[in-house]
Specification:
Layout (H helix, E strand, L loop, with lengths): L4 E7 L32 E6 L6 H5 L2 E3 L19 E6 L2 E4 L5 E5 L5 E5 L22 E2 L6 E8 L3 E6 L6 H8 L17 E8 L2 E7 L14 H8 L2 E9 L4 H18 L1 H4 L3 E6 L9 H14 L20 E3 L8 H11 L9 H4 L1 H4 L12 E5 L2 E5 L1 H9 L2 H14 L3 H6 L7 E4 L2 E4 L3
Parallel strand pairs: 1-3, 2-4, 10-12, 10-13, 13-14, 14-15, 17-18
Antiparallel strand pairs: 1-9, 2-7, 5-6, 5-9, 8-16, 11-12, 16-17, 18-19
Helix pairs in contact: 4-6, 10-11
């Protein structure tokens, strides 16, 4: 089952706690603090893998958790860092947050994005030594890793994509020109998921052709899962608009214009994509009438004039006529001409602008905390201390009653309760925030 969308739950590792330790050696009195820092938690990383075709793997295993960092130790030893969780995904995978906002686009093989940063390791007590306080028993707890619910959606990368109404022979055409074996049957919506095929144009050249389920009128509004199917066309560099030659010319042309209208309603850039017209099922026209049918269809398209549907149909450089290729999937007629046309109109890879440069704003993950937040939770022999300019300023101005409410709201907002519990906080304990002392409640 092809999967082009998946919801994942990612949890980066928390940072290791800093250690409270002192140097204890013979003949070294008062050796001073030697507690090491905790290691940073592991992050969750997505990597675009060209060998993958869909999101089935992550859809079946949606809970992605990286390793926690290890706590610091004595003798100034820093804890080991948590191992990053590297998750391979298909090229063309986009990551959206809970508000369906695009935050990263893995549009090129090898593209990498950190989607959940690990927590920063806590500082050991050696970091808190000052001229006045020579033997601090204060250490910092490791920061929490990011926990997010994200949506992955796949927009397949292809050199060309087949476009048209259902049951028009797109899958049969893909079987004829490529190595793909999509299901073929004589009823609409035989194809219910995208299929990618590889077409050999020469000994050392191949292109990919994408077949998506047929579109219905109203696809841009979601009819017939049209939005899901149209999304896959966005990455195709060329559209092969398949038209049924067995229909009356007026009906076929009206359908051609209707499909273009759906492209324009969905996305203007998609409607401007270069296109060639494939006149399929030519074998259903008597051989003596084929030339006349092709001429009539060409004249009908020319008669449309400079309408939006015709502006991006490719033209022959010599004759100026529209690129229209009649084919028959049943007999193979016209298939060599179609592949030679593709070899001519699909640019070589080196002539294509770098996809990563075009989508660079998506390949850089949204600004994040990159391991650890601005708030720090410390523990020492006197209790728990929260350090952070926003909370310190807010509590400093608050009344005693409101300060307690403010502290609890801040703990919930920053998800600090696990850190507070690890630091030994319990009901009634005093939490120090700047110069204020606030009772902690659970």
């Amino acid at each position: 089952m092809f999967s082009d969308r998946a919801t994942i739950y990612v949890a980066a590792g928390r940072g290791g706690d800093g250690a409270v330790a002192f140097r204890r050696e013979k003949f070294v009195p008062r050796g001073g603090p030697s507690g090491g820092d905790g290691g940073n938690g592991g992050s969750v990383v997505l990597v675009a893998d060209a060998s993958l075709r869909d999101l089935t793997a992550v859809r079946h295993h949606p809970h992605l958790t990286a390793d926690d960092g290890h706590g610091g130790e004595g003798s100034n030893r820093t804890g080991a860092m948590g191992v990053d969780l590297v998750v391979p995904v298909p090229v063309g995978t986009q990551v959206l947050d809970e508000e369906e906002t695009l935050i990263v686009d893995l549009a090129k093989p090898g593209a990498t994005a950190i989607i959940a940063h690990g927590g920063r390791g806590g500082s050991g007590n050696r970091r808190f030594r000052t001229a006045v306080r020579q033997a601090p028993r204060t250490a910092e707890l490791g920061g929490l890793g990011e926990e997010l619910t994200l949506t992955l959606q796949l927009k397949l990368l292809a050199d060309a994509a087949l476009l048209g109404f259902p049951n028009i022979g797109k899958s049969s055409l893909l079987r004829r020109i490529s190595n793909a074996k999509p299901k073929v049957a004589d009823y609409p919506f035989t194809t219910i998921e995208p299929v990618l095929g590889v077409v050999d144009l020469a000994v050392d050249r191949q292109i990919t052709v994408l077949d998506v389920p047929g579109l219905l009128e109203g696809a841009a509004e979601g009819h017939g899962l049209g939005l899901d199917f149209l999304a896959h066309l966005e990455r195709a560099r060329l559209l092969l608009h398949v038209v049924d030659a067995s229909l009356e010319v007026e009906e076929a042309v009206a359908g051609f214009v209707a499909i273009h209208t759906e492209l324009a309603n969905y996305q203007e850039a998609l409607a401007l994509r270069p296109r060639i017209i494939v006149l399929n099922r030519i074998d259903l026209i008597p051989e003596e009438d084929r030339a006349e049918r092709i001429r009539a269809f060409t004249d009908a398209l020319t008669g449309l004039g400079d309408v939006p549907a015709m502006r991006n149909v490719l033209r022959d450089e010599e004759t100026g006529a529209f690129v229209l290729v009649p084919v028959s999937c049943a007999t193979g007629e016209g298939v060599p001409e179609l592949t030679s046309t593709l070899a001519r109109v699909v640019p070589e890879p080196e002539a294509v602008p770098d996809v990563e440069e075009q989508l660079a704003q998506y390949l850089v993950y949204r600004p994040g905390r990159a391991g650890g937040s601005q708030v720090r939770v410390l523990r020492d022999e006197t209790g728990v201390r929260i350090v952070g300019t926003p909370i310190e300023d807010a509590v400093q101005k608050a009344t005693d009653d409101y300060a307690q409410q403010l502290l609890w709201e801040y703990i919930e907002e920053r998800r600090l309760l696990p850190l507070m519990v690890r630091a030994g906080a319990k009901k009634g304990i005093i939490v120090k925030i700047g110069d204020r002392e606030v009772p902690f409640r659970v």
